[in-house]
Design brief:
The protein is an alpha/beta fold. It is about 25% helix and about 15% strand. The strands form 3 sheets. Strands 1-2-3-4-5-7 form a 6-stranded parallel beta sheet. A 3-stranded mixed beta sheet has the order 6-8-9. The longest helix is centred in the middle third of the chain and has 14 residues. It is globular. The two termini are about 25 Å apart.
C-alpha cells in the first residue's frame, strides 16, 4: 500500500546519502563499479518520494561510476520526474518495471518503451501467471529480465514451466535472464518443491535449475570483478549481484 511504502522510505532516511558517504580514509563506501538497488522495498517513482527525488538524482549524477538500479510499478510517472539534464538517459542508471502478470506486461511495457533511457529492464516478480514478453523483447531495447516467485503468507504458486518459457524467450532474443528465487510455493512437474519460506534454499534451487541466460555477462561493467562469498556461488541472484561490499562485508 501507499502508506507502507511511505514508512519504508522513512526508515531508510538515515541511510539516504549512503552513495556519497566516505570512510575515514576519504574513500567512498560504495566503490566505483558497484551497483545500488534503489527503493527495492518501495518505489522510486512513488508520490511520497517527490520531495526527495531531486536529491537522489544529484547523488546519481555525482557517482557516475556506480550503477543505480531503479525499480517501479509506476512507469506512467517516469517521464515527468526525470532530471532536467537527463537527455537520452544516463549511462549509470537502469530503469526497470515490475510485471507480475500478462496484464501488467501489456500495460507497462509500451510505456517503458517510450521512456528515454540507455538501460531498461523488466522484473517479473512475483510471477503470478504465465508471462510472455513478446514482441517487446525482440525489439532490442530490453537488456535484462529478472524473475522470481512470491513469498510471505498466502504466497500464490509459481510454476517451473512458466519460468522455463520466459527463459526460452530471453534466450531466443539474446537477453540476459536471471531466475533469482522460486518463492515459497513453487511447482515443478506438478510437484511442490520443499524450499518453503527459506529464501536461501529458494535461491539455491532456482540456480540449480539452469534457466539463467547470459549468466556470465555483467549487468553494467564487464571489467568489474566482484568479491564472492561461498554462499554467493550458489545464489540465484549472483548473475545480477555485485558480490560482497569490501567496506561492509555484506552482500550488495
Amino acid at each position: 500500500s501507499a502508506n507502507k511504502m511511505f514508512f519504508e522510505c522513512k526508515k531508510l532516511e538515515s541511510q539516504f546519502n549512503y552513495p556519497i558517504k566516505k570512510d575515514r580514509a576519504g574513500n567512498y563506501k560504495v566503490p566505483t563499479g558497484m551497483m545500488l538497488r534503489v527503493c527495492m522495498n518501495s518505489d522510486f517513482f512513488f508520490e511520497g518520494l517527490d520531495s526527495w527525488r531531486d536529491e537522489c538524482w544529484n547523488m546519481m549524477a555525482r557517482r557516475k561510476g556506480v550503477l543505480f538500479y531503479l525499480l517501479t510499478k509506476r512507469p506512467e510517472r517516469i517521464q515527468s520526474h526525470l532530471p532536467k539534464n537527463w537527455g537520452d538517459g544516463w549511462i549509470n542508471v537502469m530503469i526497470n518495471v515490475t510485471c507480475e502478470n500478462q496484464n501488467r506486461v501489456n500495460e507497462r511495457l509500451p510505456i517503458l518503451k517510450e521512456i528515454p533511457a540507455l538501460h531498461k529492464g523488466v522484473m517479473v516478480a512475483p510471477m503470478l501467471t504465465p508471462v510472455s514478453l513478446k514482441p517487446w523483447i525482440n525489439e532490442g531495447w530490453i537488456q535484462n529480465v529478472n524473475c522470481g516467485g512470491e513469498n510471505y503468507g498466502g504466497a500464490r504458486p509459481c510454476h517451473y514451466e512458466w519460468v522455463k518459457n520466459l527463459s526460452d524467450e530471453c534466450k531466443e532474443a539474446n537477453v540476459k535472464f536471471t531466475f533469482i528465487e522460486t518463492g515459497s510455493c513453487f511447482y515443478k512437474n506438478g510437484q511442490k518443491i520443499s524450499t518453503g519460506a527459506n529464501k536461501v534454499l529458494q535461491s539455491q534451487y532456482a540456480r540449480k535449475l539452469g534457466l539463467n541466460v547470459k549468466e556470465e555477462q555483467h549487468l553494467y561493467n564487464p571489467r568489474f570483478q566482484p568479491t564472492w562469498s561461498e554462499q554467493c556461488l550458489h545464489c540465484g541472484s549472483q548473475p545480477i549481484c555485485m558480490g560482497v561490499n569490501p567496506h561492509t562485508n555484506k552482500c550488495s
